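Hi, here's the filled form for the chain we discussed.

Project: internal
Contact: R.S.
Residues: 152
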Amino acid sequence: MKSPLTPAQDAALVAAIRQAEVTTSGEIRVHLEDTCPTPEPLDRAAQVFGELNMHKTAARNGVLFYLAWKSRQFAVIGDAAINSAVPDDFWETTKEAVLEHFRGENYVLGLERGIKMVGEQLKRYFPYNAATDQNELDDAISFGGDKPSSDT
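And the returned structure, exactly as it came back:
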């Protein structure tokens, strides 16, 4: 799949991920594809989460933003540890904040807002520890059909 993002948009999203990860051991990824191959985008997000090996972080605190941009489907999903730490309505609140921007076709701005919100929660529950923290997952945006790189 060819990226629907301009180089500047791609760079802005990667910068947002890196900024959010500065204060946390948590890991954030964004995955884009044309259309969602499953009826429920949350199911597809869970599948991509596994394909990207996001469940293999030491603290189980990875978060994936999934967007099928042509079919206009979106989901945000977190691993077990972050899922059990955040308030019950956190994922829905985050999704709605992102969708608010999507409705105005401000996709990058919406993703940036969601990434910031997730980063704040990750910082709260999984603060950065200079002695132990390392970037466990690639910050690059992944795209439908892409295979996760083996150097992450």
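Let me know if anything looks off before we file it.
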